[in-house]
Specification:
The protein is α+β, with helices and mostly antiparallel strands and 284 residues long. It has helices spanning 23-27, 45-59, 67-77, 119-122, 151-162, 205-216, 228-233, 264-282, and strands at 3-6, 9-12, 30-38, 41-42, 83-90, 108-115, 130-136, 167-172, 175-179, 183-188, 191-194, 221-223, 236-241, 245-252, 255-256. The strands form 2 sheets. Strands 7, 8, 9, 10, 11, 12, 13, 14 and 15 form a 9-stranded mixed β-sheet that branches. A 6-stranded antiparallel β-sheet has the order 2-1-6-5-3-4. The mean pLDDT is 97. The structure holds N-(5'-phosphopyridoxyl)-D-alanine. Residues 34, 178, 181-183, 202, 204-207, 240-243 line the site of N-(5'-phosphopyridoxyl)-D-alanine (PDD).
Length: 284
Amino acid sequence: MDTVYLNGQYLPADQAKVSVFDRGFLFGDSVYEVIPFYQGIGFRLAEHLQRLEHSLRALRIEMNQDWTPILTRLVELNGGGNVSVYLQVTRGSAGKRVHVIEPDIVPTVFACCQSIRDIYQEGIDKVVGIKVIVTADLRWHRCDIKSTCLLPNILVLQQAKESGAQEAILQRDGALTEGASCNFFIVEQGVIYTPPIGTEILSGTTRALILELADQHGIPRQEAEIDYQRLIHADEVWISSSTRAIVPVLQVDDYVVGDGQKGPLWQRMFEIFTRYQHQLMTGE
Ligand code: PDD
């Protein structure tokens, strides 16, 4: 995973250099995407790129870029296997530290690959349920923008780790929003619930796919506000993200979820996802 992309060039990672005055570095003035590729094929690539456009528009960073060939080439140069592509666009460098945005500043584009497991190929038995903690959502009110200002997310993930958990679900004004690096779902009496899209959560591509596939398979689902009591009493809890797909949550703080096992609706949805990914890869 040695070759990275930086501003039009493919380079060995140790030769890729960014200015110390880059606004991404100084102010977190930048956005990103994490996109899985399986055997060189992008998974929900169009949806990721649409969200990137949304983030760039929100920051008023103007770019007219065809991302697909750039990312496809990068994946090829890194062996074309199962990788997640990290793509970051910063507002660029004005050659000095100045808060106000200078007019003609040129964005910095950086992308790299990291190898990932093909969870679908490995099979359902390999999926390990996780524990989450619930903690305060200290982020700003534009979580729909996939910004690199991730300090609150990083601090709560550390808190989760120190509590023996793998994720943190965030709570704002009594409502649960999302995880530090994922969306979440609960199941109550056969119905899937997840918080609605808005400025308080990231519109997850995996979240959208779960809802889409639930609709296609006639599984009832609703977008609704979810509080702590509903979370701990749910029959099933899941988290979702591009690199982890759908993962069952077996424990929330000190509460065991359902019977403490991976739930039946999670299994069904995981199988539906596996078929979807197989079709995407093989065209069958
Ligand atoms: N995170 N919410 C947050 C805060 C996230 O950071 C992520 C993804 C998601 C899920 O979005 P998607 O299903 O499109 O991956 C929701 C990525 C994987 C990351 O930061 O590494």
